Amino acid sequence: MAIQVREVDKHFGEFQALDDVSIEVADGALTALLGPSGSGKSTLLRIIAGLETPDSGHVVIDEEDVTSSPARERGIGFVFQHYAPFKHMTVHDNVGFGLSVRKRPKREISDRVGELLALVRLDGLADRYPSQLSGGQQQRMALARALAVQPQVLLLDEPFGALDAQVRAELREWLRRLHDEIHVTTIFVTHDQEEAMEVAEQIVVMNHGRIEQAGTPRELYEAPANEFVMSFIGPVNRLGDAFLRPHDIQLLSDSEGEGEEALVERVVHLGFEVRVELKLGDGRELWAQVTRETAQQLELVEGQILTLRLPQPRVFAQTS
Amino acid sequence: MSSSATATLPVGIEEGGGVARGLPRGKPNSTIGSSRGGRLAMRTIALGYLAILLGAPLVMIFYRTFEHGLAPVWDAVTAPNALHAMSLSLEIVLIVVPLNTIFGIGAAIMLERGRMPGKTLFGLLIDMPFAISPVVVGLALVLVYGRAGWFGDELAAQGINIIFSIPGMVMATALVTLPFVVRETVPVLRELGTDSEQAAETLGASPWQTFWRVTLPGIRWGVGYGVVLTTARALGEFGAVSIVSGRITGQTQTLPLYVQDRFENFDTTGAYTAAVMLALLALFTLLAMNLLARRANKKGGH
Question: Which phi and psi angles does A184 have, rounded to 5°?
Fold first, then answer.
């Protein structure tokens, strides 16, 4: 179902968490709310869910203004960063909770729970308690629990934030595939730009309670609206007012002619990628990202003098 | 407690805190109780303290009670006034404990989740019975509800007696035991957090369903512990009840009041027997608590 948020303001005491925020999410889309901590992204998600009330503005789900409806009437599924399991219930009862409060027959609940546990690959763990599951398993259980009531909208608040890197990567990939399968309108909150780029079809970048830019991952990367988006969405070098992506810097061995000279200060091998820290003639520092192959061809070592070919840097109008 | 628990504790403190290492005079081993001798000394002191305060008097009471065999004890237990005192004590417990449990859970939720102004004052008020002597509590109740009190007269005109009867005793006991359930429930409520309640809400549960199916099971061990403490304290309450009851033998005498009555009348067997009955009831309550705690640790219920 399509979601619109219109001109929402939210204060917590003196702190302005959201400042005139409006977003549109198309039916069936997979959207990321991306921003640093304190940017208001979780608050926005919780307002869409009905777990917080906005000071002013509206939330519309499927053409219906739900601003004053309680969370339980919005037809949403919500997944929390720390899973929020019902610790005193088995996995089966956790997943079946939403159906059980709707007083569905036991038989129907069991069947549905069985299907969902298969979907999240937790078959056979129905009788366990949450404390007997790993973090990744608990989060998959929480997801099955949210999906059990067939929500129109699935909202996830930093769903993989508490998991270690490998499980995280696995679950991202899996969420992406799950979405392809069930096509439920999904919004997830993250502070990890890589996660947002990898999973989402649309990204909304937030900062200080405002929306900086919304667009596809590619649009954000190729045409960032301002310096915040440019520096948040990927690595960046800053030379005065100009911004450069490290992988746009071309390194040439010094005999090859024109360009700016630079001293190699440090070479960091990160597998396929090699980071080269450089110092320009006038003392300014920057780093370049090259492939292992290029590094080998240039025989990169510390203390070496190279020629740089810099792309057209991006300059943003100063925002107040 | 088992000896392994006492033995491992100082080691844990040392590793975790690093306090000992940070001190200038410090070999890490200098923490009190980490050396063999130190540990032995600490254990002796702790056990000795317990023996002097608790062990010896308890043993003496049991010894004195059964000194002349079972027959006098049986007579003392089945004396009508003893039986009445016991049933009255239990009756008061059965009224006070549910009342304070319901109030305690409600107050804990207000204190921990509510956003009302004056919350600190409310918390302070709830703790008052801990600070005030029960005798003062009793006197205050007499001043308000007694014949010469604020509206004792009007109540008496309606045929309602609060002081020198069961309602007053229930009130006194309830007041003295007020803080237990609240104070045991607040920390578990905090630990439970609001995430799981919000999860229940998003899954379609009404506030009432959320309370019964998520909040209450989440805090049950804290509430249970509070209930046990309330029970034990209500059974043993003497000071406040002594003042509001008027101590009418066979009518407003609870078990602790009966013990004192027998003692003052030189009926030592009666006093000791009633004391043993009280001690056994308390022991039973504490045992129930331990069983609860053990189940709490075993189950996935956290």
Answer: -85, 140
Q: Check CB contact of A88 with chain B, cutoff 8 Å.
A: yes
Q: Which residues of A are less than 8 Å from B213 in CB distance?
A: 86, 97, 101
User: Which of A50, A97, A128 faces B200 most closely, judged by CB atoms?
Assistant: A97
pLDDT in tens, A219-269: 999 899 999 999 899 889 888 888 889 988 888 886 666 778 889 999 999
Q: Which CATH number goes with the domain that contains A304?
A: 2.40.50.100
Q: Give residue A204's identity as a one-letter amino acid code.
A: V
Same domain, A207 and A290: no
Mean pLDDT throughout B283-287? 87
Parent domain of A154: 3-230
Please tell me the distance from the alpha carbon of residue A216 to that of residue A311, in angstroms, as a whole number.
Answer: 24
Residue spans of chain A under pLDDT 70: 254-257, 318-320
Show Cβ contacts of residue B97 under 8 Å, excluding neighbours closer than 6 positions: B227, B230, B231, B234
- Segment B89-104, tens digit of pLDDT: 999 999 999 999 999 9
For chain B, how far is it from start to end, CA to CA, in angstroms?
21
Which has the closest alpha carbon to A287: A264, A260, A254, A305? A264
- Give residue A8's identity as a one-letter amino acid code: V
> Residue with structure tokens 């996830």?
A156
User: What pLDDT, in 10s, does the model give residues A114-149?
Assistant: 999 998 889 999 999 999 999 999 999 999 999 999
Helices vs. strands in chain B: H and E counts, helices first: 17, 0
For the record, the structure tokens of A239 come out as 């030379």
Bridge partner list, A214: A204
- Reported as a pLDDT band with limits 50, 70 and 90, residue B256 is very high
Q: What ipTM does this complex have?
A: 0.85
Percentage of residues in chain B with pLDDT exceeding 70? 86
**Cα–Cα distance for residue pair B48/B26, rounded to 1 Å:** 30
Q: Are residues A146 and A281 in the same domain?
A: no
pLDDT band at B62; cut points 50, 70, 90: confident
Answer whether residue A320 is part of any domain.
no
Say which amino acid occupies A188.
F
Pairing of strands A185-190, A64-65: unpaired
Name the domain boundary from A163, A198, A230: A230
Which residues have C-beta within 8 Å of that of residue A144, sequence separation ≥ 6? Answer: A95, A113, A116, A117, A119, A120, A122
In a domain, A305, yes or no: yes
pLDDT higher than 60, residue B22: no
Q: Is A149 on the interface with B (CB under 8 A)?
A: yes
Provide the pLDDT for residue B240: 92
Number of domains in chain A: 2
| A53 in contact with B, Cβ within 8 Å | no
Question: CA A275, CA A253: separation in Å to the nearest integer?
Answer: 16
Q: Do B198 and A82 touch (CB under 8 A)?
A: no
Query: Where does a domain end: A178, A210, A230?
Result: A230
Buried b / exposed e along B230-246 (16+ C-beta atoms within 10 A) = bbbbbbbbbbbbbbbbb
Q: What is the mean pLDDT of residues B252-263?
A: 91
Nearest CA in chain A to B197: A84
Question: What is the average per-residue pLDDT within B207-227?
Answer: 93
pLDDT at A178 (0 to 100): 87
Handedness of CA B164, B165, B167, B170 (dihedral sign): positive
User: pLDDT at position A261, please?
Assistant: 85
CATH superfamily of B70-298: MetI-like (1.10.3720.10)
